[in-house]
Amino acid sequence: MSKQSWVFIINPVAGNGFAGEYADTVKAMIKQHNIDAVVQITKRRGEAIEIADHYVKQGFHHIIAVGGDGTLYKEQDMRLTLNEKTQETKSFLNTIANGRRLAGGFYLTPDAFANDGLLDICMINKLSIPGRIKELIRVIKKKHTEGEAVDYFSTNRLTFEFDWEVPAHLDGEMYFESRFEVSILSRHLKTIYNPYGNHYFEIS
After folding, report:
1. How far apart are CA 64 and CA 10, in angstroms?
2. What is the pLDDT of residues 11-46, one digit of tens each?
3. CATH of 76-183, one of 2.102.10.10, 3.30.450.40, 3.30.9.10, 2.60.200.40
4. Among candidates 13, 36, 10, 14, which has minimal Cα distance to 23?
5. Domain extent listing, the chain
6. What is the chain's Cα-based Rg?
């Protein structure tokens, strides 16, 4: 593992070139604080993700994006295979879950039941910056599944495919892949829960 645990990824065109002007400032601050770090300047679309993937695999713990929110979070062209049918689509955020709550308090899949044998899928399509803020508010209010920007459905199997490796996480563990084939093993985990409590299990 490298002794350098920090990498700064700078998108020089973000903010009409404003982020690129900070490259020297970033380097100066690294030197001033005696940080073991590297600075990488992106040169093309999608390269920030490739750089982040490379340094994560090298054992770097701190990946810092210097740029607009599009530096790492970009809509991605993908192929979705569902019920043996494949379609091309563009997505900003895909959530696959059999529970309702993520990241402490975001109900991206508010209709999910843990024991119905199905995965709930929430696909948020391409959005403008104001649109992302609006959709976040709708997520907090659990109203996003009714919006035109969201495709929400249930299935027991699906596949996402991308032209390059994209970031994903499994319960907080981040990794990069270009193909994700996800299915559910129905009733393979025995769970004890209070049937009279606040739960998300179907009771027959």
Report:
1. 8
2. 876 655 666 677 888 888 888 878 888 898 888 877
3. 2.60.200.40
4. 10
5. 6-66, 76-183
6. 20
